[in-house]
## 1
Amino acid sequence: MSQARWFPPLLAVALAVALSFLTLPIVAIFVDSGPAELLSSLDDAAAIDALTLSLWTSTVALVIIVVVGTPAAYLLATRRFRARNVLITLIELPLVLPPAVAGIGLLAALGPNGLFGQALDDAGIRVVLTTLSVILALTFVAAPFYLRQAEAAFSALDRSWLDASRTLGAGEATTFARVAIPAALPGLIAGLALAWGRALGEFGATLMFAGSFRGVTQTVPLAIYERFATDFTAALGLSAVLVAVSAAILMTVKLATRASPARVLTR
Amino acid sequence: MSLHVEAVADLGDLHLDVAFDIPARQCLALAGPSGAGKSSLLRVAAGLLQPTSGRVTSGDDVWLDTARNINRNPEERRCGYVFQDYALFPHQRSWQNVAYALRDRPRAVRQREARGWLARFGLEHLADARPATLSGGERQRVALARALARRPDVLLLDEPLSALDTRTRASAQRELADVLRVTEVPAIVVTHDFAEAALLGDEVAVIDEGRVVQQGSASQLAARPATAFVADFTGAVVLHGTATPAPDGTTIVTLAGGHQIRSTDRAAGPVAATVFPWEITIEAAGPATSQSAQNHLKARVQFITTIGGRVRLGLAGTENLIAEVTTTAIADLDLQPGSHVTATWKATATRLVPHA
């Protein structure tokens, strides 16, 4: 027994080191930029534009991800087929892709000289350097976070719930809507939070694919980067705003999960 | 309306090949070891598992006919299915779980009807509770109410009582027997327990390795088990040995431990000799006194368990036996673990079944 006495303190020390390292930069942002800087950064019209753009483009991206991703993840979780593991790996690929590579890839696919560039041009759709390209970039980098989490949440469902629903007269679509989604809700919401956080912080792919034009493609991370070269205090203030907004979204989602009945019930 | 199920399917290591006809108001108790294909058969009937070939009909309704390419979806078959772990939806209250089965009823009456079903099972006070807060017995009743609320043409119960503790189980058994008695539709109940099969089933079918090894009334199975597994399932003591016909018309069985016992059943070759624990009497070790009983085995008392007025004795010797005696016998013989005794039973109480 006595040999193990050093072990619990070791765990505590490891957690303390991890915690201080991970929170230090965030604490520093708020220490360096006082309330005055924070407020003045919100006084800047360009900052407000960036914040508004970030919020609505990430919301649109999230809606696309949830609407398409939820049924896709359900299919991956509930069917067993041969190419399943390959498909899951392909979906997870953007997770390990450097954002710059994601941006290049999007350009190669949808840019003027890209795979579908001519087709999009013929259809009269301009993608690159427009707000649409921001939404596409955010969707591309954030979707895997949601898909992975949603697939895991659906896989964890008790299959007998889905079977019971069918024997009780519900078709596949009703089973999905009335049993699978409500029962997997905590996992889905956690995935949503992760994806949203990733979308709000997206930088590299947006810069490569959409550029950094105020009010059109300049999201908060791009605005921070622009200020970084000229006005470090303003960059700090805007960073603090982004941290606050992200934290607020994360907290809201966590609280929503706690209030959800399904969480209480899945032991 | 009767239920007909026949299915041939390869499920991993298991080759399922069974067929059953269950008339209306009748209940078939399906027993067998784990992995014998009992649940698979229920899933075939409900449309949750598609067999390689098979036919499922409920009255004139054809639910599955692989020869004619008919395969109705589970939601199109009126099956009241009670799952082993009850499969109550965790995000819904009890009444909502029941109301889920009533989605073909007008929205306005669903809640009232669902609460009515719960009241029938004495659960009206738990209508607003969520499954996680219910006891095992309460969950079982909600699941049963939900299955019946579907107004099924067929009832399928997959080990409906196995998740319950022993005390809840006894009352749940009686309750379920009452439900099955009044229900108009054919039912299949999967069980591990012979007493439960005897109580719930009008007929008992034992399946092993995907095939029916015996089907009949519980008393038929107990009196004439077709295999060692059926004998063991009915609670009999099973002894393995080799049978040789004796000149007097009886059969001598040489047991694995070298001892010989007699049976009035005819058999030759490898057999399982079975005897019920209550047929075995216990005497103090020494020369046997009983004149008529021909089978004697010396053994040592391993354990003594009292169940109500009966006592189960675990006996270890060259063969392991279970004997059931009265509490008086224990006192008279002054038995305790370690005592040496002779177990005695009649040749007429010894059933022989071929054993591969």
Note: The interface with chain A takes residues 43, 46-48, 73-75, 77, 79-81, 83-85, 87-92, 100-101, 103-104, 130-132, 146, 150 of chain B (CB under 8 Å).
## 2
Amino acid sequence: MVPALELAERGDIDYLVFECLAERTVSRENLSRSKNPDQGYSPSLHARLRMVLPACIKKGIRIVSNMGAANPLGGARAARKEAADLGLGDVAVAVVLGDDVSSMVKHKPELRLIENGEPLESILPKMISANAYLGADVMCEALNTGAPIVLSGRVADPSLFLAPMMHEFGWAYDDLPKIAQGTAAGHLLECTASVTGGCFGWPGKKDVPDLANNGFPFADVKADGSVIIGKTPGTGGRLDVMTCTEQLIYEIHDPTAYITPDCVLDITGVSLTQEAPDRVRVANAQARPATPTYKVNVGYADGYIGEGEVSYGGIDAVARAKWAAEIVRERLKRQGFTYDDFRVDLIGMSSLHDQVDLRPEPYEVRLRMAGRTPDRKAAHAIGFEVRAMHMHGPGGAGGACEPRVRDVLAVKSVLLPKNLVNAQVVVEGSL
Amino acid sequence: MSVRVYDLAHARAGDKGNTSNISVICYDAKHWDFIERELTPERVAEAFKHLAKGPIKRHPLRNLKAFNFVIENALGGGVTVSLAQDIHGKSYSTVMLAIELPDPPK
């Protein structure tokens, strides 16, 4: 939280972008909204805006965010109330609507799921949400209203950053070199600290100074499409060609064709140059025109995951943990419980990379067992039986956790022709 | 004599759905050709055979001294349904870094 405030106060920026939606966040917020129609935006919106609004309003920094999640209008009302409570008066919010395409795709059961080629019909009965990844065009339209805050639901991450550039410089989608540069910049910024030394350091190999005080990045963009990535002055962390390269390639899959709603980005020609300490120039991003479709994330309920953990230490710790796992499996089987997927981990040996038989035995291990099932009782039984190893299992079990059960909110995706999606902007408050 | 990927390159792993995406970035551009020759998709598949079904595709990024490995069917069905602790497979970068390459460059 603090790095965002430092960026607003000391970063000499014109726009502050909060990218806050993971893959299934919109589904989760859709469930919140179905319980309470005022909810459904990111619950963190209150604290985040309370923190940065005074500095942003004072300095004329405009806020762009997808924190509207499943209820951008509700989020806008909450944002305006925060501003009023802070004594900042009537702060208008431009709201981007239209990403929620759930009622439309209900009538398109024939759409194919990208992940497995099955028809959408296969998950429609369990669907919770369907949201198109909107692009920078409608975010730019929202910025054109002049509202100090722009709030959306699902928008592609780089598009949140590209929109202010299109707005400031009048870039259009057919100006591909600039759209490419702006999209590359957005991709570099979207994971904040991951480009400034977070998710990077390695002691003695890739050292990062003062990582606890890691600063957030900004992009210094010119109308001609030149981009320099920098970070808040006076903060820790590290911003150089290495950190930028890791983030540039991150989750991009085919580097000649990173598809966003705005373009198809090609990063293979990109050059990164250290211009000054903590300043890296990004050049030569290329792009082809955008595809005619939006990617739509479809969230659906897919049963439950249950899990439990218990620890073994000292002599024969691993043998006792393995024995306990067998006992738990047998006890679950005897109760008639079955699972779509089941997993046994020995934390300390095999919970990350498997191959338990190849690993050296540690002094202590923590047995973890997890299973997925449509039956909530079966999910709960896993943690219950693992905890029961205190009483019913091998000797010397310690520290079992309470049984854990969580709802599975699964996400799959389809492509929807852009012309079927009605993205639009409404303004809450007076301009 | 052998080297590990770790000795010549750094890496970061990310995810989309059930697909893992792992970059391999040379510290020094002069090792790019060696990595290209030795860190084949087949060798990576061998290192990940217990974690991922594949297929595996390697994308070259010579300009960035890097490669991007895209490994399908790698994340226990995908972040949202996986039973793993590391549902995103972020720690998979360390599996990549541990791969031994037989012919160290001079």
Note: The helical segments of chain B are 5-8, 32-38, 41-47, 92-97.
